[in-house]
Design a protein that fits this description.
The complex is a heterotrimer of chains A (379), B (176) and C (400). Chain B is mostly beta strands. Helices cover 10% and strands 33% of the residues of chain B. Chain C has helices spanning 2-6, 35-50, 67-70, 75-79, 99-112, 154-169, 173-186, 201-206, 234-240, 268-281, 286-289, 300-309, 318-323, 340-344, 356-363; strands spanning 18-24, 59-63, 90-93, 118-126, 209-212, 214-215, 224-232, 245-254, 292-294, 378-385, 390-397. The chains are: A alpha/beta (379), B mainly beta (176), C alpha/beta (400).
Chain lengths: 379, 176, 400
């Protein structure tokens, strides 16, 4: 079973005017290699980057990857997906005997994008959706939110509770730029941007880079005392037609099922100690908690209000501050989730440390997709 | 599990619906047109910022790796081979040698150019071997360009320099 | 450091990987079929040849080059349905033009790792969506600071590389043009071909100049198309067929971004990728052990360049082999018997159809009129891409 033997990150900031995307990747990579105690030029067999062309502003982003990772004239590739897909790639490469040590990188240089809404709109089906309206594509999420709230009696308060919890958690996270002390009332009094969604329920963008070093078990045991095992990994795609999908995060349910099966987890809610879940829109956290079988469809609101998912609750969710606190890291979202789980499992999370042995990280591929991935980590 | 392998010719003859330029211009096909407004402003970063600012002064700057002793151009803040950070800056010359060249008759959209341009990879004097950039060559007949030709940068007047690679207008042959 | 002592790749995999079916659409400019539909046609053929149903497919790998061609961001999500990725794990890999062979390499590790027993690999490219010309998309592959202000065309870098190759190895354009002549003639037998034809060396040398030394007939045309491949575990292969084709070696390698800092005359990245694949496939003398090759040939000089990178010819020897007819379909080392990209067409990643699929068909003796004259056991295919940076190599054999 492959294990994470080194992590490094740079950020997370609302803007990074002094460093290019290459340089933040370099900073994160150097830290990860130092953490793992390896020399990338000698020890690493495979490098994987997770990037989307239009998020970077290039036609072939893969070109600009090798130098800053130490990957020149080495097996290197790009996965057009979230970091967790890259981690799955490293997992498969190791299990296939193609690599003993693999490196996975993801980053966000969201501040380089000047027309973010237009770039997301560019991902829509050109015939059916793109021409419908020039409104900011966040309305996609609002439509889904509206459906989800109605179907499962989700209260506005529960969603406000997610914002309060995550932004509150972020205050203890030095690398989270969007921490804040809020109350449910203040959230409910804040303005709507896409009814029924409030502006404060949408994660702001952030910059950052994250690098993981993953190794085959035998090697992992040799080079570190605290390997974090990748016990299970899953990824799943639902459909690309916006109008026929379930709006119930089926992708997260199926990806979770795949990862849980691999990890031998039968009752996730009992066995999992910590979860880092995609909350780029606040309601998504509730939806994803249910999809990952960490709460029942109709009880999730109640549990959220009771503080079941808070830092000192029974099942802490998004202790790092989540995307609402750390920011929308685009394809590095799953990386920030995994990073938090790994730090927690290694007991290196500082003031936000909780007691845990098994954690789950989940990501979604953002609007307008219904795809996502899940990883289960354990010590 | 289904039925087992079929004997078919591989690949089977596959007709498709062809398309010519006229089909588009005469709107013979149904299509949706979109002109997305995708704008980016990339942070140049530490190495490139210094490099671009030096261009304004009419100078080329490189970095030097302490370990492998290479003078690296275009500059970066890490040596990709040694994987070490670099903070040693050196000026290099604005003369160089043509490593390879091409005479281009088309623009970026594959439309014909009025006057062909000569494009070359030029290795810069003062940097390590093979440390070159792509740039334009002018003030010479295309047929007179050869690999190994020595060239010199022709700079824009200082007032017109903006800190881009085009602050060098082009490179011209260096006599003697 | 201890790592060094215990390391040393042994290529221990969970299970072997067999190819049991392949499909591709015609390569041509088209407007009626969308990218999704093209993918569907290719997948349908591949599954039909394999004798499988879409329900049997456990995971899907998509290979597709720049989003800018289709004009859709997150293109993989858009193509999802056509590629058969609905309701199953689905992932897209992208290494520029190298994707044509990289996507099957990714399919290989999906199966070899034991995560999937049946993996469908789909490659799609629809370049004609991009206006005014597919090459417009390539404006955005350049470094925004160093290259883009010079308003480069993609052909430039290839012209620069070709000139360097000709200069260092003392090769004449006539010798290079022979590749174009051979491949376009081979493509006459390919039902999917776009630009097959009987041409002469003079036709190539007199064709319209694009970026000298590159002329119109040195270049493969942009096309639309899709290709698909079914990769399975041994126990599935046994149920489907008596003679599957096995993947015996894979390799990939990415060189530095700073292409102007390299000597372009030799493709180091391809040589390194081949070294990895040969080690895995236990190939020590590629020239002798490999029976049929499909190196990436978007430009005629590239076939020669890549043959040298793959060790199928010594440096500077590939043009001589071509002249002597060794690389012809009835030669001792048939190269691009499909007609390659120069003859069949170049829909970037969908080139998988004339690279990986072709070697599969050749080794399975199912290539029909294109079947090479000699007896074949081992074949190699290779692709290349990014800023002349990546080499992706796959070695296959009809013996396990």
């Amino acid at each position: 079973m492959p294990a994470v033997v080194g992590v490094g990150y740079y950020g997370f900031n609302t803007n990074t005017p002094d460093m290019s995307w290459k340089e933040i990747m370099y900073e994160a990579a150097v830290r990860a290699y130092e953490d793992a105690g390896i020399d990338p030029r000698r020890d690493v067999d495979s490098f994987v980057t997770c990037a989307e062309d239009f998020y970077e502003g290039f036609a072939i982003f893969d070109e600009f990857v090798p130098d800053q990772l130490g990957a020149v004239v080495k097996p290197t590739c790009t996965v057009c997906a979230d970091f967790l897909y890259g981690l799955a790639t490293a997992y498969m490469q190791i299990e296939s005997g193609l690599a003993d040590i693999a490196v996975v990188e993801a980053h966000s240089k969201a501040s380089d994008m000047k027309t973010f809404g237009e770039i997301i709109r560019h991902a829509m089906d050109p015939i059916w959706l793109k021409g419908v309206t020039r409104a900011h594509p966040y309305y996609f999420a609002a439509l889904e939110m509206s459906y989800y709230m109605n179907k499962y009696c989700i209260s506005e308060e529960a969603i406000a509770e997610v914002v309060v919890k995550n932004k509150g958690n972020a205050i203890l996270n030095e690398s989270a730029p969007y921490g804040a002390k809020l109350t449910v009332e203040s959230v409910l009094n804040s303005p709507f941007v896409f009814y029924p969604m409030r502006k404060i329920e949408i994660a702001e963008r952030a910059d950052g880079a994250i690098v993981f070093v993953v190794a085959r078990d035998e090697i992992a045991r040799k080079i570190t005392d605290s390997p974090v095992w990748i016990k299970g990994i899953g990824w799943w795609s639902e459909t690309s037609s916006y109008d026929t999908r379930s709006f119930e995060a089926l992708y997260a349910y199926k990806a979770g099922k795949m990862a849980y099966k691999m990890a031998g987890i039968e009752v996730p809610v009992k066995e999992i100690d910590i979860a880092e879940i995609d909350d780029r829109f606040a309601f998504k956290e509730l939806q994803h908690i249910v999809a990952l079988q960490l709460a029942g469809k109709f009880e999730v609101c109640e549990l959220m209000r009771e503080g079941y998912f808070s830092r000192n609750g029974s099942l802490p969710v998004n202790v790092s501050g989540g995307n609402l606190g750390v920011g929308n890291l685009l394809e590095a979202t799953g990386a920030q989730k995994s990073l938090e789980v790994v730090l927690q499992l290694r007991r290196e999370a500082g003031r936000r440390q909780i007691d845990c042995e098994l954690g789950v990280a989940q990501c979604w591929r953002y609007i307008p997709t219904a795809s996502g991935a899940v990883a289960v980590f354990g010590v | 599990m289904a039925v087992g392998k079929k004997e078919i010719s591989c690949p089977p003859s596959a007709e498709g619906t062809g398309l010519s330029d006229a089909d588009i211009s005469q709107k013979n096909v149904t299509y949706f047109e979109d002109h997305p407004n995708l704008a980016y402003s990339w942070t140049a970063g530490q190495a490139m910022s210094r490099f671009l600012n030096e261009l304004k002064n009419g100078k080329l700057i490189a970095t030097k790796c302490e370990k492998c002793r290479r003078v690296i151009f275009p500059p970066r803040i890490y040596c990709e081979l040694c994987y070490k950070p670099i903070d040693d800056w050196v000026y290099i010359k604005d003369t160089g040698v043509v490593q390879t060249f091409s005479i281009s008759f088309i623009d970026p959209d594959a439309k014909p150019l009025e006057k062909p341009v000569i494009v070359a990879v030029i290795t810069i004097d003062g940097a390590s071997p093979n440390m070159g950039i792509m740039h334009i060559i002018d003030e010479v007949e295309p047929e007179k360009v050869y690999i190994g030709m020595r060239v010199k940068a022709v700079w824009r007047p200082e007032s017109e320099r903006k800190g881009t690679i085009t602050d060098i207008k082009y490179w011209k042959p260096l006599e003697g | 450091m201890e790592v060094e002592v215990i390391k040393g790749l042994k290529f221990h995999k969970k299970q072997d990987v067999a190819i049991v079916g392949a499909g591709m659409t015609a390569f041509k400019r088209r407007m009626l079929e969308t990218g999704k539909e093209l993918s569907y046609y290719a997948v349908k053929q591949a599954l039909e040849e394999a004798g499988l149903d879409i329900k049997d497919v456990e995971m899907v790998v998509l290979g597709s080059a720049p989003d800018a061609f289709d004009g859709i961001s997150l293109k993989e999500e858009y193509l999802l349905e056509g590629a058969g990725g609905c309701d199953r794990p689905y992932m897209r890999y992208f290494v520029g033009g190298g994707t044509a062979v990289f996507a099957p390499i990714a399919g290989y590790w999906h199966v070899a790792s034991g995560l999937a027993d049946v993996c469908l690999v789909v490659c799609e490219e629809k370049m004609s969506c991009c206006q005014p010309h597919p090459q417009s998309a390539f404006k955005y592959i350049w470094d925004p600071i160093l290259d883009r202000p010079l308003k480069p065309n993609l052909i430039w870098i290839f012209a620069l590389e070709m000139r360097r190759y000709m200069h260092v190895n003392n090769v004449k354009h006539e010798d290079i043009a022979l590749v174009s002549v051979k491949n376009k003639a081979n493509a006459l037998d390919h039902p999917c071909s776009h630009v097959a034809g009987k041409i002469t060396v003079e036709d190539v040398l007199n064709s319209e100049p694009m970026a000298l030394p590159v002329r119109r007939l040195d270049v493969s045309p942009p096309s639309d198309g899709a290709a698909a491949l079914v990769m399975v575990a041994p126990h599935i292969a046994r149920q489907l067929t008596d003679d599957p084709v096995w993947v015996t070696g894979v390799g990939w390698n990415l060189d530095t971004t700073h292409w102007t800092n390299r000597d372009l005359y030799f493709p180091r990245y391809t040589a390194e990728a081949a070294r990895m694949a040969y080690r895995m496939a236990h190939i020590t003398d590629p020239r002798k052990q490999i029976d049929v090759a499909e190196p990436y040939d978007p430009f005629d000089y590239k076939e020669l360049h890549h043959m040298e990178g793959l060790g199928l010819a010594k440096k500077g020897e590939a043009p001589i082999l071509t002249k002597e007819g060794v690389t012809a379909r009835d030669g001792d080392l048939p190269v691009c018997p499909s007609g390659g990209l120069l003859g069949v067409g170049n829909p970037i990643s969908a080139a998988m159809g004339v690279k990986v699929c072709e070697i599969y068909w050749q080794l399975a003796y199912r290539a029909g009129k294109r079947q090479v004259a000699k007896e074949v056991t081992t074949g190699i295919c290779q692709a290349w891409g990014d800023l002349m940076q990546i080499g992706t190599v796959m070695v296959m054999s009809n013996k396990r």
